[in-house]
Design brief:
By secondary structure, this protein is of the alpha+beta class. The chain is 24% helix and 47% strand. The chain is built from 2 helices and 11 strands, in the order αβββββββββββα. A hairpin with a 4-residue loop joins β7 and β8. The longest helix has 28 residues.
Length: 199
């Protein structure tokens, strides 16, 4: 009877422990957003942003790598910005712009903080009208505590962009051109008046 009572008590305790035990937190990488396949309404001299977003959960070490290919003749790279949970972490990324290959590579080998939503914005200026394709590839790595196995999420894609010429020249160029035209017309008018007066 005593043994049965002890076994019953032990079994009851085990069931209580199993019922109240918290499951181990899962390590996850969730790609939240990537650049759309089609971008519309872009004009010459507009600033285009390619946006990437990923969420790390219960990571012991987080890595991010993004590569974008673009037409270096008709687009100008204008920098990037990275945030983790809304905090600027741009300086945690290394970047390489390869003009010969037409690529920009961003990489962060140890994001701090390691968990949360990472957003990366890469900016380009449209220089000429036309139809263009941006190619991109993103790789995210989550390292759990030992003996966990690192998790990797990769995604590749293309972003099609049609640039119209409606943007025209930058405002400062228009103002400079107008000012020069006014000065030239004023000089011509003064010269013409002097000639008339001389006659």
């Amino acid at each position: 009877m005593v043994r049965k009572a002890v076994l019953a008590s032990a079994l009851t305790c085990l069931l209580i422990l199993l019922a109240t035990a918290q499951p181990a937190s899962a390590q996850e990488i969730n790609i939240v957003s990537t650049p759309p396949e089609e971008l519309k309404g872009v004009k010459v001299h507009d600033l285009l942003a390619l946006n990437f977003s990923v969420e790390y959960t219960n990571s012991n070490g987080s890595i991010a790598m993004i590569v974008v290919s673009f037409d270096t003749k008709d687009w100008s790279y204008k920098g990037f910005k990275a945030e983790m949970n809304g905090k600027d972490i741009t300086n945690q990324f290394d970047f390489i712009v390869d003009g010969a290959r037409g690529t920009i590579e961003l990489s962060a080998s140890s994001l701090q903080p390691a968990n949360g939503i990472l957003t990366v914005h890469i900016f380009f200026e449209a220089l000429k009208p036309g139809s263009y394709v941006f190619g991109w590839a993103s790789t995210y790595v989550l390292a759990p505590l030992p003996p966990g196995i690192p998790r990797v999420e990769m995604k590749i894609g293309e972003c099609h962009v049609v640039v119209s010429g409606g943007g025209g020249l930058p405002v400062w160029v228009l103002w400079a051109g107008a000012s020069i035209l006014v000065i030239v017309l004023a000089v011509v008018a003064i010269v013409a008046l002097r000639r008339r007066g001389g006659v």
